[in-house]
Every structure is written in C-alpha cells, then in structure tokens.
Design goal:
By secondary structure, the chain is α+β, with helices and mostly antiparallel strands. The protein folds into 2 domains: 166 residues, Glutaredoxin; 86 residues, Nuclear Transport Factor 2, Chain: A (Roll), CATH 3.10.450. Helix content is 25%, strand content 25%. It is built from 6 helices and 12 strands. β5, α4 and β6 form a beta-alpha-beta unit. α2 packs parallel to α3. The termini are far apart.
C-alpha cells in the first residue's frame, strides 16, 4: 500500500519556515455556516444566497478575510463585536457596511478567539492536521476564556494546522495537538507561542523573519518583551541579504536575514503526477547576535 504524502510534510522536510510570509488580512469577519455545507470557493457553499456571496466577495476585495466558521451559534463577528443572530440578508448588509469602512456596534466578546482551518475540501492537510488540532483545542481550552472555531481556508495549506488568533490577527502554523496546552498558556499571557508563530501580522516578510529570530534569541537568554526593529530596509523584492538592529527589554540585537530558495508544494494536488513544486524565495534569519558582538 502506498503511503499518502502531504504537502505540509514535504515543506517541513525541506526546511521551509512558517514565519515570514508578510502581513495578514487587515481584519477578519467570521460567519457561522455549518461545516457540512462548506464548498470551494466558499461563496458557493450550500444554501448560500447570491446576495451574501457577493457581499463576501466585496469584503474580500476590501482586505477583509471572511471565514465561514463552525463551533458555536454566534451568527457574525467582526473586530470582537458579535451578532448572536442574523439572517443571510442581514449578514450581507453587515459585510457591506464594514467593507465600506463602517464599524459595527453591539455586544463585545471578551474572549480570545482561535480560528483553526479544517477545510478538507480545500486541501487534505487541513482535514488531517487541522481537525486533530482543532479537536485538541476544544478539549483543552476554557470556554470562559477562549472561543474555539473551525473554519474554511485561512491561507497556506502547507502550514496545517493553520490558525488565526483574534483580535490580535496573529497567525500560527503547524501547531500539533501535543503543543496545544503550551499554546493556550502563551495566549493567556499575551506571549507569542514561538514554535508555531508566523510573525507580527502588521509586518512585512523580512521584518517578520527578523522579529521571530529576536524572540527566539531572547527566549534562550531568559529575556521577554516587545521587539522593536530599528533599521531594516523595506523589502525591495530584489535584495538577497539584509541586516537590521532590534531592541528587546533594553537589549540591542543584530540580525542578518537572507532570501533563500525552497522547493514548495503549496497544495497536495501539486505532488507527484499532479504538478511540480515551485521554487519560492523566503526570508530566513541566518545570524543573530547581541549588540556587544557576541555571536549566537
């Protein structure tokens, strides 16, 4: 019997990092839709009216990621404001409001929301790895502190289990069920869980790679705090190596990052006879040392 090969496993074996893919969506809207009704694309999901599908496309074009979610009965969420009940027509109106720059008023959910992609219709990795991690999250998380949802495609099937933490918009990838307890503990103290952290959602790709490297260095040194990047040039798309300075908890750190090439299968359907891997350039931190020049 032939063993199934998954794009997530191939990319991990080739050493492709999870951190450093650039900014996430500017905001996320969560629309309750039963998992069994999801389709690809999500705007063709079972029983979805065309008016709602068009509103989703309009919101996406405005930089809002609209995820179909399952796990509770809250109808609609955006920027922590929840609507416990909303018809498809009402939801379409809400999406058009926020797509046009409006804000929703109403009940706020104080919990941390963790959205985990389990969209097996998008890619087998999300079903295999995403569902296992989502199940572990549901079992471990205190529902008074966390809202745990499974969702349609969040971007990056090869990073399954792929997650977004709201309201921070922080993305995580390749989170294993055995890591869930430590992951939730970090979220409760507002500390990134580095083994799966994909970088500050507001930073570009090279900055995310540098930030992640500084946080990892600081963890080894027993230091914690916010990372401030001070002199990293903007990603020009042509540079292959850059250096920058960062500070964390009063410590100065120098980081060298390089644009390295990886063979990447972005979807399982590109494996074997169905296609070939792409050669993708990714920013990776190759040197990190304290301001006094001591290499780490």
């Amino acid at each position: 019997m032939t063993t199934r090969i998954f794009c997530r496993d191939l990319c991990m074996a080739r050493g492709e990092p999870a951190a450093g893919l650039g900014p996430s969506a500017r905001s996320y809207a969560l629309l309750h839709w039963p998992r069994g009704h999801w389709r690809v694309p999500r705007t063709t999901s079972h029983l979805m009216p065309e008016a709602l599908a068009q509103a989703i496309r309009t919101a996406n074009a405005a930089g809002i990621h609209v995820a179909l979610v399952d796990g509770d009965d809250i109808a609609f969420t955006h920027d922590g404001v929840i609507r416990r009940a909303a018809s498809p027509d009402e939801t379409a109106g809400l999406l058009l409001t926020i797509a046009g720059g409006g804000r929703l008023e109403g009940e706020r959910d104080p919990r941390i929301t963790v959205v985990c992609c389990t969209d097996g219709k998008q890619d087998p990795c999300c079903a295999r790895y995403g569902f296992a991690t989502w199940k572990a999250l549901r079992e471990a998380a205190d529902p008074a502190r966390f809202r745990i949802l499974q969702s349609t495609h969040l971007g990056g099937c090869r990073f399954a289990a792929s997650l977004v933490v709201l309201p921070q918009r922080a993305r995580y990838g390749r989170l294993e069920p055995a890591q869930v307890a430590d992951f939730l503990s970090c979220l409760q103290t507002d500390v990134p869980y580095l083994p799966a952290y994909r970088g500050d959602p507001a930073l570009d790709a090279p900055c995310q790679a540098a930030e992640h490297a500084v946080l990892a260095w600081a963890e080894q040194e027993g230091i914690s705090g916010m990372v401030r990047l001070e002199d990293l040039p903007a990603d020009s798309g042509s540079a292959r190596r850059m250096e920058c300075t960062a500070t964390i908890a009063g410590q100065t750190v120098r980081i060298g990052i390089e644009n390295l090439d990886f063979d990447v299968n972005t979807r399982c359907e590109t494996i074997g006879g169905h296609g070939n891997p792409k050669r993708v350039a990714r920013w990776v931190a190759t040197t990190v040392h304290a301001g006094n020049g001591g290499a780490e």
